[in-house]
Design brief:
Length: 260
């Protein structure tokens, strides 16, 4: 197991400064956000000078946009990120949130197709297109809770899409969203099995792990059972001074993982 932090949560003005901060905390990966647009050679040079790796890269959030131009740009951006993921050693893949929002943005064309049916079919087509562009690290879908998204809320919703493909398409398990959507987090993790290629951690209140009442140990035991050995990406609000809080969080996560 390795620990990662989102780029935007790390201290520092530049990516090298942020990597130095993470190294100091013993954090092994960064979820690249803003810096994903840097030239590939520059990124490779920056990461070559650090023990911190690129944990994942962001794909487009416009794959279901009603505007065809925005969708085409979304596909292109995601293809570029898949290529970049293969250039950065140890990168787990490209994170795609299928859509944000509690209602479809596509029109309701009943009785032909409802908006949700259209979204499902369009998303499956977009994934087929993108699966063909995977030659290294996979694309993975992140299920979000019902207050943030409606199409893919539970791990099972993600695996339903992913199961149409081979290892090119995976899913992410985010403990904050699972805490709202899954009846039994451990059972859902076991059912998703090797489709899980990335994990986000936040506590029940979305503060840093250790500051709420999340039972990480049971979920971590299920991750170990399925042979998950990837990143736990910290994605949360931080209570208290950043460096102290993260030091405490890293300790908490390593302790819970060891005990699981
Ligand atoms: C949003 O709640 C979330 O969990 C993020 O990982 C989406 O990119
Ligand atoms: Mn997340």
């Amino acid at each position: 197991m390795k620990i990662a932090l989102r780029e935007g949560m790390a201290q520092g003005a530049t990516l090298p400064e942020k990597l130095a901060f993470l190294e100091r905390l013993g954090i092994e990966g960064v979820e690249v956000e803003r810096s994903a647009g840097l030239p590939v050679e520059e990124l490779r040079t920056i990461f070559a000078g650090s023990s911190v790796g690129a944990a994942n890269l962001p794909g487009s959030t416009a794959l279901l946009d009603p505007d065809p131009k925005a969708r085409a740009e979304g596909l292109e951006l995601t293809r570029r990120r898949l290529q970049l993921a293969g250039e950065l050693e140890g990168c787990a893949g490209v994170l795609v949130v299928p859509q944000f929002g509690t209602r479809p943005q596509l029109p309701d064309l009943s009785p032909y197709k409802t908006a949700v049916e259209l979204e499902r079919e369009l998303f499956a087509l977009q994934l087929r297109e993108l699966a063909g562009a995977v030659s290294g690290p996979p694309l993975f879908l992140e299920p979000l809770n019902r207050y943030e998204a409606h199409l893919v809320n539970r791990l099972e919703d993600g695996t339903t899409f992913a199961n149409e493909f081979g290892p090119e398409i995976g899913i992410m398990a985010d403990f904050f969203h699972m805490n709202i959507e899954e009846a039994d987090i451990a059972a859902s993790i076991r059912a998703a099995g090797s489709r899980i290629v990335y994990v986000h951690v936040a506590d029940s209140n979305r503060l840093q792990p250790g500051r709420g009442h999340m039972d990480f140990r049971t979920g971590f035991a299920a991750l170990k059972e399925i042979g998950y050995d990837g990143y736990l990406g910290i994605e949360c609000r931080i209570e208290g001074p950043l460096e102290e809080a993260l030091t405490e969080t890293v300790e908490h996560l390593r302790r819970e993982w060891a005990a699981a």
